[in-house]
Write a structure and sequence with these properties.
Helices cover 21% and strands 26% of the residues. It has 306 residues and is of the alpha+beta class.
Length: 306
């Protein structure tokens, strides 16, 4: 796996860069660096090395390891499956992979059972097959790699921003334009490391294209197309312009009236479409999922009231 440092990445620590670009945990990235599996322009460096413009980062693929996340017979909606990959429609409330506080009941546990353990090993024993993620309380389409070759292909497409990704959400407020683009860099919140924020000085390039599908009295149904894929991008971008996603417990409004009215348990955000070049055929494929029942019921009620 190879990367080249561009202007937006210059000055970022190597372990932070790898955790974002290679979809690794920070600790996993540090371990690879410490083990000598990562070089920068042909040299081994420390995990806190700050990247320079045009640095060439090479990551040696780890050998497949025996998976330790346990298979669990959990229902999961499989939209598509072949020998290389799976496309699933994740329900709201399901965590993608095991982490602190969520060591079972995750999508990975369900897929290990469904795929009989045949998932890409690139991300190790906790996140087998996981190429990209969506938040616990975001529903929708997710692609999972069965083979290392498929994983590398999909990861490279995501890195190159060539994957088509569209989301629907309900956002607060009245919009003056039918469509617009939010182009604001996103990075870790300067005071709360568990959150992301628009950070002009150290944030990474982030672009979201927004279309107003239906304007209601105090909120709107939006379609958001990602040009980049930063953590919490849509939620952070919409909150930054004063239109937070309904039901968002982190970036939303306090005492959200829609949360109370519709008993929301998380943000009304749904990954509706995902398109990419198939790793085996190199043909463009596209998958979609309708709004989940709880989301559609809110839309229907808002439609009736205008």
């Amino acid at each position: 796996m190879n990367f080249v440092c561009d202007e937006t990445s210059a000055g970022i620590r190597l372990d932070v860069f790898l955790s974002e670009q290679a979809d690794l945990t920070r600790s996993a990235a540090q371990k690879l660096i410490e083990n000598g599996d990562v070089t920068v322009s042909g040299e081994q460096v420390n995990k806190n090395y700050k990247l320079r413009l045009r640095d060439e980062i090479a990551v040696a693929l780890p050998e497949a390891k025996e998976l330790t996340a346990q298979p669990e017979n959990i229902p999961v909606e499989i939209v598509y499956e072949d020998d290389s990959l799976l496309v699933v429609n994740k329900e709201q409330g399901m965590v993608v992979h095991p982490a602190a506080g969520h060591d079972s009941g995750t999508l990975v546990n369900a897929l290990l059972y469904h795929a009989k353990g045949r998932l890409s090993a690139i991300n190790g024993v906790i996140r087998p097959g996981i190429v990209h993620r969506i938040d616990k309380d975001t529903s929708g389409i997710l692609v999972v790699a069965k083979t290392n070759q498929a994983h590398l292909s999909l990861a490279e497409q995501i890195k190159e921003h060539s994957v088509s990704r569209e989301y629907f959400c309900i956002a607060h407020g009245t919009f003056k334009e039918d469509s617009f683009t939010v182009d604001k860099p996103i990075g870790r919140h300067p005071k709360d490391r568990k959150k992301m924020a628009v950070v002009a000085s150290s944030g990474r390039n982030a672009v979201t294209h927004v279309t107003v599908v239906r304007q209601f009295s105090r909120c709107a149904l939006l379609r958001c197309r990602l040009e980049t894929g930063r953590t919490h991008q849509i939620r952070v971008h919409l909150s930054s312009i004063g239109h937070p996603v309904a039901g968002d417990p982190v970036y939303g409004v306090k005492n959200d009236p829609l949360t109370k009215k519709y008993a929301l348990t998380g943000q009304l955000l749904h990954a509706a479409l995902l398109g990419f070049l198939h790793p085996e055929t190199n043909e463009y494929v596209e998958f979609s999922a309708p709004l989940p029942k709880h989301f559609q019921q809110v839309v229907d009620d808002l439609e009736r009231k205008g």
